[in-house]
Amino acid sequence: MRFTREAVQESVDKYSSLIREHLQIPLEEIIVEEKEFVWPWRKNTIMTTIYGKIFIDPTKEYDYHFVNQEESVLHEIGHRSVEALCPRFNIIIPRGCNTCSSFLRVLNSIVTGNAGRDVALSEGIAECFALDVFPSYFLLDSNTLYFMQETKDHHQKNLSLVNNPAGFGRPFFRMLYNGMGLQGLCSYIRNLTPEQVPSKEDLRNPVLYWGRYSKQLPQSDVVSLPQHTH
Q: In the prediction, which pLDDT does 219 show?
């Protein structure tokens, strides 16, 4: 199975429109472009994204047992949704070292023992949107839903920060979404500050973190959060 720009663009346009309409997230127009993922650290890359673009590699062959186009698109749109809600998100939680400030953040995460945390946060929140939020708001085909359930099962069995950062970070945000819904999740993203960025230990056991967070909210906004994450 290979991705084509036309098919992926069709999926991106469809889901972007639904998300703007039903979730009120102000997604930008997103163009799908072709790009060969030639760097060694990109060997397992399926899609990538920056503002206004999603990149695919039309030369790569994928096994449909392990890759699903719709789920992959929704994951990348998850990244775009986060940045639409909080344009500074990739500065607060950098995905790479492309600026001086993000390099210093990555260096600081290593020094403080939080290496890998920022990747888990960035990938985990996109995965939460793809697997938990978006399927609650619009219909997906049976093959995609089956693949998503298989992915959830895989995440639950492989909670590894190193080998599965998306699966490691997703329960943290899923706990907030399950407890406070889309409005609570979006509010957290919009108002996130560097001081609020959770630690690696918070990701492992988010109950105390969300307990502290809920105490800062107006009582009318507080909903009882679940006492488990998996």
A: 55
Which H or E run includes 56? strand 53-56
Count up the domains in the chain and report the number: 1
Is residue 226 in a domain?
Answer: no
Residues in Cβ contact with 172 at an 8 Å cutoff, skipping those fewer than 6 apart: 121, 124, 198, 202, 203, 206, 209, 229
Residue 228 in any domain: the answer is no
Q: Is residue 56 within 8 Å of 34, Cβ to Cβ?
A: yes
Report which secondary-structure segment, H or E, holds 31. Answer: strand 31-34
Picking from 203, 210, 166, 171, the residue whose alpha carbon sits closest to that of residue 188 is: 210
pTM: 0.88
Pull the structure tokens for residue 95. 């995905």
Spatial distance between the Cα atoms of 229 and 211, rounded to a whole number of angstroms? 13
Q: Residue 227: inside a domain, yes or no?
A: no
User: What are the tokens at 15?
Assistant: 């889901």
Q: Give the span between the Cα atoms of 169 and 122, in whole angstroms.
A: 8
Structural domain that includes position 71: 5-221
Which residue matches tokens 């390099």? 103
Give average pLDDT by consecutive 10-residue segment, the chain, 230 residues.
94 96 96 85 80 93 88 96 94 63 58 76 96 94 93 90 91 93 94 90 91 73 50
Q: Return the closest-CA partner of residue 54 out of 38, 34, 37.
A: 34
Q: Say how many CA atoms lie within 13 Å of 112 toward its Cβ.
A: 14
Residue 210 lies in a domain: yes
Helix extents (H) in 24-164: 69-85, 89-92, 100-111, 117-128, 142-157
